[in-house]
């Protein structure tokens, strides 16, 4: 299966879709409740659910989305989810995917902000450690499956290994971008691919006109909000959160120090309160960008409470939505060109290498500390890869194992 842009589609004239927004919401709500382990693990959960189990898209299409979102600033896993929801059920599906994946952790963090102090030790509990072990198995399964389909020859296997080495040597967003650039250049220069066979169209329902409008809106807000923030107190935090969501590369962990620099010095949030929320954010599933909901809840008037949480949560994700949906029609049109197809094949191999590096650090290093941990991870991998057991049950079993081991 391959994606093609819908040249004449628009907000009011979308091509037929293959699912419903409620279906998308249900699937992403389950993932939002169970996806522990950070953005790399989330991509593993998404692949297991939508490529392996549901077959909403194939490995090539999924890897194209991952590669696109690696190029874009913002939360890569959330952007991939938005695109999957868009492809499955149109604009309502994109919103449903974001709501389902984001809402559980956002609600948990807002409740923590309201003083549920007993959650303060959750990040160091045995059950959460078991969830980190489950993330090792999920990412390992994703690496295994993607390597078999996206690295079918020595050149692409070598590209994956080289990309892993680049990322391990430079463990930052710059290292990831360098690995993707390396894969794209080598693929364009050396790969020889057969002509692309006829493909069943799988349109996103976004025209180039709409995509250009969304991208223009992204840049306009980036420039206008800081200027408006100097005229109204309640707009200033919105400008800070929009800028953080618009300019950060590398996922949720990178956005946290940027937010700290934006909300602590002005006195909107105390540093102790900020750090307490940071600890709680490590213990909940879903994207770390939902930390914005916690900060919005503890923000002083005119924000604060549930309204502040909702406003700042939406604000930090708006750039991700505008960028990924705006870029899709151009990305899909370009990837069908011969030169870009070769570059994309190299980039897909590089994505496998990036996941290999991430499997080691931070996923493996933060979870595997003993032989017992390794045994749980190995069992979870076997259940996922060979037993075809639902990730929900595997995650629950790993959490239980982690709890028992901590007793």
What does this structure look like?
This protein has helices at 21-34, 39-53, 59-71, 76-113, 126-150, 154-169, 173-190, 208-229, 235-247, 252-263, 271-281, 291-298, 305-334, 338-364, 371-385, 391-406. It has a domain at 208-322. Mean pLDDT is 83; it is low at 1-16 and 197-202. The chain is mainly α and 407 residues long.
Topology diagram in text:
Blueprint: H1 21-34, H2 39-53, H3 59-71, H4 76-113, H5 126-150, H6 154-169, H7 173-190, H8 208-229, H9 235-247, H10 252-263, H11 271-281, H12 291-298, H13 305-334, H14 338-364, H15 371-385, H16 391-406
Average pLDDT, rounded to a whole number, is 83
Q: Can you give the helix content as a percent range?
A: over 70%
What's the Cα radius of gyration?
21 Å
Shape: globular
Summed up:
The protein is mainly α. It has a domain at 208-322. 72% of the residues lie in helices and 0% in strands.
Structural features:
single chain; 407 residues; mainly alpha; 72% helix; 16 helices; disordered N terminus
């Amino acid at each position: 299966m391959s994606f093609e842009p819908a040249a004449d589609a628009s907000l009011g004239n979308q091509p037929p879709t293959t699912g419903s927004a409620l279906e998308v919401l249900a699937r992403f709500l389950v993932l939002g409740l169970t996806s522990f382990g950070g953005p790399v693990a989330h991509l593993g959960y998404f692949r297991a659910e939508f490529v392996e189990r549901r077959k909403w898209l194939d490995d090539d299409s999924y890897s194209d989305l991952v590669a696109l979102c690696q190029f874009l600033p913002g939360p890569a896993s959330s952007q991939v989810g938005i695109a999957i929801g868009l492809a499955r059920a149109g604009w309502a599906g994109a919103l449903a995917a974001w709501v389902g994946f984001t809402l559980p952790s956002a609600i948990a963090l807002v409740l923590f902000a309201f003083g549920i102090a007993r959650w303060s030790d959750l990040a160091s509990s045995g059950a959460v450690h078991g969830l980190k072990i489950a993330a090792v198995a999920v990412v390992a399964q994703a690496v295994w499956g993607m390597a078999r389909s996206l690295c079918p020859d020595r050149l692409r296997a070598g590209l994956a290994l080289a990309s892993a080495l680049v990322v391990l040597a430079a463990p930052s967003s710059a290292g990831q971008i360098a690995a993707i650039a390396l894969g794209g250049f080598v693929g364009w220069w050396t790969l020889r691919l057969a002509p692309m066979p006829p493909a069943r169209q799988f349109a996103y329902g976004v025209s180039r006109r709409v995509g250009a409008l969304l991208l223009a809106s992204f840049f306009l807000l980036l420039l206008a909000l800081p200027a408006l923030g100097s005229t109204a107190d309640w707009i200033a935090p919105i400008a800070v959160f929009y800028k953080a969501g618009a300019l950060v590369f590398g996922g949720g962990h990178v956005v946290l120090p940027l937010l700290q620099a934006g909300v602590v010095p002005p006195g909107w949030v105390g540093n102790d309160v900020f750090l307490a929320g940071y600890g709680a954010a490590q213990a909940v599933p879903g994207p770390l960008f939902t930390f914005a909901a916690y900060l919005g809840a503890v923000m002083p008037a005119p924000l604060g409470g549930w309204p502040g949480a909702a406003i700042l949560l939406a604000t930090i994700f708006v750039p991700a939505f505008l960028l990924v949906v705006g870029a899709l029609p151009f990305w899909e049109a370009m990837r069908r060109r011969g030169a870009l197809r070769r570059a994309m094949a190299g980039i897909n191999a590089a994505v496998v290498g990036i996941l290999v590096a991430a499997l080691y650090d931070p996923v493996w290093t933060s979870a595997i500390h003993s032989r017992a941990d390794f045994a749980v991870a190995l069992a979870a991998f076997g259940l996922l890869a060979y037993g075809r057991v639902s990730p929900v049950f595997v995650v629950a079993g790993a959490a239980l194992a982690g709890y028992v081991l901590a007793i």
